Amino acid sequence: MKTKKNPAVAADISVAARRWPHRLNDLIHTISDRLVRPETQHTAHDLLGGLLAPLARKNCWTLAKHAGHPNPHHFQHLLSRARINEVGLVEDLRTYARTHPGEQDAVLILDETGDLKKGTETVGVQRQYTGTAGRIENAQVAVYLAYATPAGHALVDHRLYLPRSWTNDPQRLQTAGVPEHVAFATKPALAEQMITAALAAHTPTAWVAADEVYGRNPHLRRTLEEHRLGYVMAVARTERLMLPCGPATVGELAVLAPGTAWQRLSARPGAKGQRFYDWALIDAEPAPSGCRWALIRRHRTTGELAFYRCYAPEMVPLKRLVAVAGRRWRVEESFQQGKGLAGLDEHQVRTWCSWHRWSLFAMLAYAFLAAMAAIEARQSPSMAELIALTCNEIAHLLNALFATDPDIEHVLGWSLFRRSHQANARQCHYRRQAFQEL
């Protein structure tokens, strides 16, 4: 694959890519105060490099082999026994994740994801529902907080969910190294902890988005309203609201809404066109300081309905609430890319400390890719014939260009071909959608 058609673009990519390893070193320098000892910093650098590598499996053994270590002991020590300021590391992650995508129009997004496990020894594991499998499985579930702006998104905090089968068993907690102060907490309670920590760290945001697990929790909603944070959170069709005319479920409101109540708006642009739905906004009971609504989304072809509780400290247009609702899907992309590119779900650790540290370093590795994508999008002019560099493409180039004796022209040629092909496909989808809208 040659680059003769786009030599200038290929040269720009090559120059940009050569900055990425230095920026990874800058990230290590940013968190170095949290890692205390120089050898811990070196091991953390090797761990981040391995998490970004295209390995079939990512665990201490495979990462140690990739880094040239004689055994996995350095990584195992880093995850379980090394002196690390984990609270400070989370603060650095939050700061880093918002520095490059920027602070304009930021939304915090709550969601959980599960990792399927075998056995019963891994901390937090039990048979429970996880969206990863779409059913009840033996799994470990954690709640994550994502930070998203139009320029990018990354995971910035996490909490492991401990079921009552664990918190009611002190011996099991002690074996897994769970701190004594940790008690049972619901997923919304864990979400509230992360929101409170983010606000205490002055994270710039005015909105929170979440799915039904969090939207149906009145205590979490009340906490957000007390902080005057707007929210758009999904609820079930059986969710009851107090209206001026009396109580009603959101499902009943969808049936009673007149045709004039529905507006066609795009939740956000996608690879195959704008994501248009029909939306209806209905005033709900007034808040002590602010406005509350029920938001209903209707699929244009199937008629499938989705429901949301909404709040804002002041009146906002429907378009703004729709934009926040559409931003929620960024956390799904963060999970997919964090797992596929940074090994978020590939840990083979059993204890509390090791799980938290592995997840933190995986989130840092993914935040690095998101930061590089935001930087290149800001520094490189947009081109209609090429899509912007994505996290996937940056990870591919990072490994291909810095492999032993790479064929740079071949690597860049294929990168340009992929981005050109994806840009053509996107343009075709948008033209077809525009034609269908006529």
Automatic annotation (TrEMBL):
Domain spans labelled Transposase IS701-like DDE: 38-243
Pfam families: DDE_5
Family annotation (InterPro entries): IS701-like (IPR039365), IS701-like_DDE_dom (IPR038721), RNaseH-like_sf (IPR012337)
Family annotation (NCBIfam families): transpos_IS701
Protein name: SRSO17 transposase
Species the sequence originates in: Nocardiopsis terrae
